[in-house]
Amino acid sequence: MAKNKNIPSAPPTHFNVTARILHWLMASMILTMIFVGVGMMTSLTWRPWLLDLHIPLGTAILLLVIVRLINRLSFSVPKMPASVSGFQSKAAAGLHWLLYGMMVALPLTGWAQLSAGGFLIKIVPGVNLPPILPENPFLFALMHDAHKVMAWTFFLMIIGHLSAALLHAWVYRDGLFSSITWTRKTINRSENLLPDEQSNDKNNVGNERVM
Predict the structure, then answer these.
(1) Which contacts (CB < 8 Å, 24+ apart) does range 109-116 have?
(2) pTM here?
(3) Does residue 1 register a pLDDT over 80?
(4) Deepest of 50, 51, 69, 76, by most Cβ within 10 A of its Cβ?
(5) Local structure of 123: helix, strand or coil
């Protein structure tokens, strides 16, 4: 019997390969950026060198998050495990989009700050970003404060995101963390099976282990 084409396909168990590569690449870049930012605030000796690293790294993050957003909106994503309540699911989705927003806003406020301060925004020798704000002391102070507050807020959000990820990976072990890795996802198959497949699965109880 031919399959009913009107029946929707089951949601994926993992994010697509592009999403996974971008996630871990950007995670490493953002962690590097945090250490660079701390170094810039604590060492005057290293500040010029770190600033030369901070600007191109921030620019790369801005470009990659745009690619990541396009990819995120173009493909289906795994659904939350059944153990996650509706409120938790909505909160996680909200934090997810806030993280995206911060990954866009932080590089832009840094770019605007340097523009308003009249600084050269060097990516690599001979390649500079154009200013996006006119040189203005008030705008410089405003963007400086906005960038600083956003950076600390983003840092706290990352701690929350990382804590939740490790909780699901080590305590709940519900497959949520493995959906963004290359490991096999252990799930309750009945959550993602279509009605006909669920019936067949029930008939096979005892013959195979339900993952």
Answers:
(1) 109/143, 109/146, 109/147, 109/150, 110/54, 110/55, 110/58, 110/143, 110/147, 111/58, 111/59, 112/139, 112/143, 113/140, 113/143, 113/144, 113/146, 113/147, 114/55, 116/140, 116/142, 116/143
(2) 0.80
(3) no
(4) 50
(5) strand
